[in-house]
Amino acid sequence: MKEEDKLQLVNKQHKIRKEQIPKHLTIPHVMFAVEKEGKKETTLCFYQGNFGYIEGKAGKKYLEQEVALALEKLFIRGMKEGQYFAMISGYRSYERQKELYEESVKKHGCSYANRYSAKPGYSEHQTGLAVDISCASVNYQLEECFANTKEYRWLKKNCWKEGFIIRYPKGKEAITGYSFEPWHLRYVGCRAAEIIMKFQLTLEEFLMV
Prior knowledge:
Elements: H1 3-6, E1 25-26, E2 31-35, E3 42-46, E4 63-64, H2 65-80, E5 86-89, H3 94-108, H4 110-116, E6 130-134, H5 150-158, E7 164-168, H6 173-176, E8 181-187, H7 190-198, H8 203-208
Antiparallel strand pairs: 1-4, 2-3, 5-6, 6-8, 7-8
Helix pairs in contact: 3-4
């Protein structure tokens, strides 16, 4: 993957084209947390191989090939140190992001939706470079309480080693445009990730340097 592709800026001011679809989407060999149909309990599934369908909910299992490999390495690194994670959501099509944003607006209102959910065309998930992860101690939910776990503390210290950053850090809401999301990782490559995490920057600040 080219450096400029890894560092593509997608935020509330920088849009990704509706027809832009990552070229090398694949399903990482990691643990996924999925809801059992008709039940609230969460279970773990281990997906292998490509299912060839990236639209709707099915798309969330995919990441860009280089990102998928990096996530596998990150999860393995964590397991070796007693930290266990599960992938919740990766790639999203423009149409799927539209569905999620509209659901959030309907459920919580525009103000809340705009703090936590991107409008279609403005989501990093559409690039295949972003991934949401969680852990068992918070029942695999994407909630701010994830930041209080030992898994998150480990992640914040080590994610850069495999090229990831905490994309929406606490205290940087005015820059990123989003509330703190400890579960949202963005792949930028190891060189950029080390600088961003070491100096507690956002991707926006890093690109301005």
